[in-house]
Amino acid sequence: MNASQIESTYKSVISLLLAGKLKLAFDKTRLLVYELNRGDIKDNFEDMVRNYRFMLQYFVAGVDDPERKTIYNKQVAKLINLISTLKEELMFRNSTNFEYTQKRYYPHKLHFQSTSALFDSLQYFHKQSELVDTTISLEQSGTTQSRYNFEKLLPDLFAIYWLSTNFQEEDKAVFQKITHKDYPGIVEKCLITSALTLNLWRMFDEEKLIMLLDICQHENIQIRQRALVGLCFIYTKYDDILKFYPSIRNRLVILFDNSTITENLKNIFFLIIGTSETDKITKRMREEILPEVMKMSPIIKDKLDAENLIKSDEWGEENPEWNEILEQSGIADKLQELTELQLEGADVYMSTFSMLKNFSFFNETSNWFLPFDPEYSAVESLFQNNEKSILTAFLNNSIICNSDKYSFCLSVMQMPQTQRKMMSNSFKMESEQLEEITKDETLLKPDIAARNIARQYVQDLFRFFRINPHHTDFQDIFKLSLKMHNTTFFSLLSSSSEIKTQVAEYYFTKKLYSQAINLFSEIIQESEPSAALYQKIGFAYQQNSQIHDALQAYLKSDIILPDDVWTIKKIAFCYRIIGDFEKAIEFYKHADFLKPNQVNTKIQIAKCLVRSDKHKEALQAYMEIEQSAPDNEMVLRSISWCAFVTRNIPQAEYYLEKILSALPTNNDFLNAGHIALCKKDRKGALEFYKKSVELSDGNLQLNIDQINSDKGYLKANGVDEDEISLLLDELSFTIEPLE
Question: Which of 687, 697, 682 is nearest to 734 (CA)?
Fold first, then answer.
């Protein structure tokens, strides 16, 4: 089997299990069992089949077993565990995917003989760090070497918990030691949490998921937030199969008893959902804002009067034309929009820092998940003094994620020393202000640190799954960002809170209407719906072109809150779209009664009268509208058409001449041709028809079809059908002469 066949068989088995077709699932699994051809796996598989056969025999024999459902679910869970292991082992043998290539290679480049030896080396570094007095120059070289040895082990630690199929007892013991509150290494804790998340993302494993749940309650806020972010993705991916693992559900229920954790998870949900905006923002930055800024730079340069700027009494005065230039270009509005998005937590730096990920530092997978550490050897030379600078400001910046901080520092290190110092000094004051703001925010909002850590980590993950050199070899974790609300995980989280409404409103404001409809529909079933709720779900249906569903929602809103003009007009609009013009007229007239003298409402009534073939009433309606909007070309055009249809040719011609003297369309010339033909002015009709063809990009057939569709109106105005045919032939000869 190749990798594609292995993946396909795995998915097929899962689908069969979810459909309750356990026998067929066993048949499919057997293909992988014999493909792997490993004795212990074969024995395990045959035991499972045998036990299921026993259960079926008891069932057929009529044995009443109250535990049958539990036993069945355990059988399914065991088979899921087995198929996950089979897939992983077979992909290890056959796949050229980056992860499996690394999995085959990493044992040969480890810097230790056992996981315990790795832990001892890590622990030794921390003990040495406590003992060494870094102010003693004689000790400095030893400290540097110790740090180097420590950093060399971090990718190994990450690889074990990222790439191992099964954790050995020794691996689990080391995991417990590192994640213990007394272990001092925050970097190691962060890395193994991320590694465990990636491992679970690649393959399902009940025991590993329990380990992740354990660290979701970690005392350290950084570790806890990483684990909770990972948990959201893992639960969403495996939502369908987790119902077969009651122990995991029970652990989740216990986790949700902690109000701090549930609040953290709510914030994380919004952060993950918000990543759907990142691609749009990045695209706008690259395609709209940056090109506009580049275009503007010579304009701004020309506008600057250098001589005036250096005068002592005007030195600090900014040129008011700068703002004018920005406003005229439209960039000011775009930049303001980005600022507002940033305040909402949107990732506006993705496009900037995506271009700074080519440093060799990012060739190591684990480095994408490192918490920012100024002591890390790749960047520590920038932090060798205590002076406030742009660099120290980065430590306190909650907007920029860890990965981007490393990118920035690595970029700064490429600068000449003089330029680096000048930049650092220029940001000294801003750095101190930023530090003060951060302190104030933390005091005023105790949960802000948790939210900021989660935001940074979500952004780190986004960069890894979208722009790392091997990202195409990973299943994109963020493809699930707009599916999380459909999970049992979300249902449990939102069972006793307002988060469902908040998420629905967020989807609605971001124009994610399908997702908003799902949640609004659930809210309607679970609570007393309001008129506003039906209005919103109606609007969401409307934006999704589900007009019949939108109409039903608007009608329900009208029952709860009668005579709301907005709702009435939306109901009328829906009836108009589905072709029920009589109903549309009824509701538009009601809207006109509730809020009279609205030109747009009267126009809609007139349009519906036209579509209902009530041209005399429509003409009268348009004539009334003309009094309020005498220069409205659409109204004049409509009056002319209705007059033509009702056989009032002089009136039709009078209003059409007003249109022809302005900016006529091809349809205007077509109608002018109709009127000329009704007046027996065949030459004039031919000339008008020719102009219509010209304005239709020479599309003769389009015009012929339109003339034929209006044939009934022409005949009603006394034009003989033969005349129409003859004139069309002459038009064809004129436009497309025979060769």
Answer: 687
Cα 559 to Cα 555, 556, 563: the distances in Å are: 6, 5, 9
Biggest CA-to-CA distance, the chain:
111
Convert 398-423 to b/e letters by CB count within 10 Å (16 or more is b). bebbbbbbbbbbbebeeeeeeebeee
DSSP letters for 124-192:
HHHHHHHH--TT-HHHHHHHHHHHHHHHHHHHHHHHHHHH-SS--HHHHHHHHHHHSTT---HHHHHHH
What is d(CA 732, CA 199) in angstroms, rounded to the nearest whole number? 71
Residue 183 zone, left/alpha/beta (φ > 0; ψ -120 to 50; rest) = beta
What is the rounded distance in angstroms from the CA atom of residue 529 to the CA atom of residue 513?
18
> Residue 475's CB: how many other CB atoms inside 10 A?
10
286 Cβ neighbours under 8 A, 6+ residues apart: 351
Q: What is the mean pLDDT of residues 442-451?
A: 70
Find, among 599, 552, 592, the residue nearest to 569 by Cα: 592
Amino acid at residue number 514 = S
Contact 6, 32 (CB under 8 A): yes
Token pair for residue 148?
A: 């180097």
Q: Which two tokens stand for residue 363?
A: 């060739």
- pLDDT value at 565 more than 90: yes
Question: Would the pLDDT of 206 be above 90?
Answer: yes
Tell me the torsion sign for CA atoms 410, 415, 420, 424.
negative
Rounded to 10°, the helix 259-274/221-237 angle is: 60
- Cα(521)–Cα(500) distance, integer angstroms: 11
Among the ranges given (138-152, 384-398, 571-585, 665-679), the one the predictor scored with the smallest mean pLDDT: 384-398
565 touches 532 (CB < 8 A): no
Q: Which two tokens stand for residue 10?
A: 């795995």
pLDDT on residue 476: 94
Q: At residue 184, what are phi and psi to the nearest 5 degrees? A: -80, -15
Round to the nearest angstrom and report the end-to-end CA distance of the chain.
64
Contact 203, 10 (CB under 8 A): no
Cα distance between residue 234 and residue 434, in whole Å: 35
Beta-carbon contacts of residue 194 (< 8 Å; ≥ 6 apart): 158, 226, 230, 369
Give the mean model confidence (pLDDT) for residues 625-647: 90
d(CA 456, CA 403): 9
Helix (H) or strand (E) holding 394: helix 390-396
Q: What is the pTM of this model?
A: 0.81
At 317, list the tokens: 């005065």
Q: Which residue type does 667 have?
A: N
Cβ-proximal residues to 92 (8 Å cutoff; 6+ apart), any chain? 100, 103, 104, 165
**CA-CA distance, 187 to 196, in Å (whole number)?**
14
The tokens describing 498, both together, are 């307002």
Token duo for residue 611: 């579509």
